[in-house]
Amino acid sequence: MSTRELHRAAEMAPRMRSEHLLREDRANLLRYMTLMRAAEERALTLYRQGKVPGSFYDGCGQEAISVGSSFVLGPHDRMCILHRDLGAHFVRGVTPERYLANFMGRAGGVTGGRDGNMHFGDRRLGCVGMVSMLPDMAAVATGLALSFKMRGEARVAMTYFGEGSTANGQWHEAMNFAGIHKLPVVFVLENNKYAYSTPSDLEFAADPVERAAGYGFPGVPVDGNDVETVFEASW
Fold it and tell me: At what angle do helices 96-103 and 23-48 cross, to 10 degrees?
């Protein structure tokens, strides 16, 4: 969808009205989703022009997931944000200028343009820079949550991953450890039905959401295109 169509979809199909959101909150949710779409469209144009080194991955169509979930968190909570979840960076306070500067290897970028165009996180905003081995960030978020529990702090860690990540042992280790120790961590699984070119029915025999119960915590399926539903499930 174009940016205009994204606005239209948000106006036409608010399928769930969260009791925890004010009108101003809803306006901000739309703003962050639109900002993510516009920034990634611009970055993609720059990439096609050869002005962005390396590769480019966008979260087009998945804006509601990162924006709706991260909007729940407080300033003292911590996040491990992945490459398709730019909206969460914007919610935490990263500006489009810093995002684009990082993609172009500029000093004004989030990490000064270093460590690749996607591996960024601003620790001052409570975000840990990602690594390419995507399930590994689930273990990092679990470690953050463990430290919160050991210190007796009322804080939460949150991270994202695709359904393809659930085929990796690191993912299992993070889920199992979090379940055993009942840690304050939220795992957001973005299931777009394909891990690169591999369909879900060739990746796993049971839905990943159903597997959550085996680790000792609930799995909640939600419509990832409905920002208020995502927000409410993350609450």
Answer: 20
